[in-house]
Design goal:
about 450 residues; globular; alpha/beta; Arginase, Chain A
């Protein structure tokens, strides 16, 4: 049997502040325990060194304002590169699955990045998905986000993509950052039903989360039939996590990964540095590698944590019923959207960068193409605490784009360049041809992002 691949990158030189929850100790305790327990010496495990993601890798997913290097430090690139390293090893057939234990995390970072929000600048899983599509022609991918916080960045990036199934189960957004992730958030008009959110009541533990997995996630995955399953492996559902209010255990995490059987797991949040993370990471690794984890327990483990209240289970079952109907009706919903007389769909968005205190307003315009997911235009205005403002326009062509959308999007990009007085930068992200351009309006210079 092929081994499980691991990448460790604790990012010694990057932290929001020395005492911030998102700091290097998140992985140092895990690494020490795993090596002390001898896990790394087993034939079921093989370790890889992370590569560094390039500007092009990042630009395939993000519009980084003003440049990729302004938003992605070396630490961000290596963290993201750890996920790409695991993806390469999997696609070369060297491993049966892999876990990128890396930081900084990424699942709150959206398509346009003006700064850090939710501890995230660039989105590791999303960049990896676009990398897999470009380099290995993988088409259908499922992302299951198990972080306690809604994966709003990953959701936004694949909102209009029917070939990426995004499922997030998290603590109810009415009680926790980022305040999103409700059952009515189901994807853009041509991808409705391919985003499924499970907002769980505070206090949900092993029984409730595994019930969601068995009665919603696994049946939907079976029907969607993805080529790869990615676990956005946040660990802050744990009962000791200081930033949330859930009751998941290390053994629960191990069991979840055994049943889900992801091809790739990428670490996201989790801030109980000493009392949870070493045990959770150990459990996930053991489950992915097929190692018995029946004796894995935290020192203060209480079997009662795994039990769900009657009221909690009733709420969870009601949520699942709503989402099962959304999934059943997805084709009808998309057909109705295509049959409208409108050529374009628009929505206004307000995005707050809590870490960097940036307030962004967006106008998103999607071409309602009859044959492909349609090209996207984003007009973004970001206001910084200093009073500085940055306005950019972004044109994104999906990898599945039809020739008409490719032509029209390029013409639209050229037309916006001629009206450059409204923006500081204009971007073209052509995934269908793997071509990424940045136009500086002040100097009237265009750069190819390599």
């Amino acid at each position: 049997m092929k081994p499980t691949g691991l990448v460790f990158f604790p990012a010694f030189d990057w932290a929001i502040s020395p005492t911030h929850p998102e700091r290097e100790e998140r992985l140092l305790y895990t690494r020490d325990q795993i090596f002390e327990e001898g896990i790394m010496d087993l034939p079921q495990i093989t370790e890889y060194q992370p590569q560094m993601a390039t500007d092009r890798d990042v630009a395939r997913t993000h519009f980084c304002v003003p440049t990729v290097r302004d938003q992605a430090t070396d630490a961000h690139r290596i963290s993201c590169g750890g996920a790409l390293t695991i993806a390469d090893a999997l696609m070369r057939g060297e491993i049966r699955n892999g876990f990128a234990l890396v930081r900084p995390p990424g699942h709150h970072s959206m398509r346009v990045s003006h700064g850090n929000r939710g501890f995230c600048n660039i989105n590791n899983e999303a960049i990896m998905v676009d990398y897999l599509r470009h380099r290995y022609n993988v088409k259908r991918i499922a992302i299951v986000d198990t972080d306690v916080h809604h994966g709003d960045g990953t959701q936004e990036i694949f909102w209009h993509d029917p070939d990426v199934l995004f499922i997030s189960f998290h603590q109810d957004g009415r009680t926790l950052y980022p305040g999103t992730g409700f059952t009515n958030e189901i994807g853009g008009p041509l991808a409705q039903g391919y985003t499924l959110n499970v907002p769980l009541p505070p206090g949900t533990g092993d029984q409730g989360i595994l019930y969601v997995l068995d009665h919603l996630v696994l049946p939907v995955l079976k029907e969607f039939n993805p080529e790869l399953v990615v676990n956005s492996a946040g660990q802050d559902n744990h009962y000791t996590d200081p930033l949330a209010n859930m009751r998941f255990t290390a053994r629960g995490y191990a069991e979840l990964n055994r049943r889900l059987a992801p091809d790739i797991a990428v670490l996201e949040g989790g801030y109980s540095v000493e009392t949870a993370l070493p045990y959770i990471n150990m459990g996930i690794i053991m489950a992915m590698a097929g190692i018995d984890y029946q004796y894995l327990y935290e020192p203060d483990y209480d079997p009662g944590l795994a039990q769900e209240s009657r009221k909690g289970m009733e709420i969870i079952k009601q949520i699942i019923e709503v989402l099962q109907k959304t999934w059943r009706d997805r084709d009808k919903l998309v057909e109705n959207a295509r049959n409208t007389r409108e050529k374009f769909y628009q929505r206004h968005k307000y995005i707050y960068y809590d870490t960097d205190n940036v307030r962004e307003q967006q106008l998103e315009t999607l071409r309602l193409c009859p044959t492909c997911p349609g090209y996207l235009t984003i007009d973004s205005l970001a206001r910084f605490a200093s009073g500085f403002e940055n306005r950019v326009c972004c044109v994104s062509i999906p990898w599945q784009a039809c020739p008409i959308c490719v032509r029209d999007a390029n013409e639209h990009y050229e037309a916006i360049k001629k009206r450059h007085d409204r923006h500081e930068f204009i971007y073209l992200q052509d995934k269908s041809n793997d071509r990424f351009l940045r136009y500086e309006c002040q100097t009237r210079k265009e750069f190819n992002i390599e």
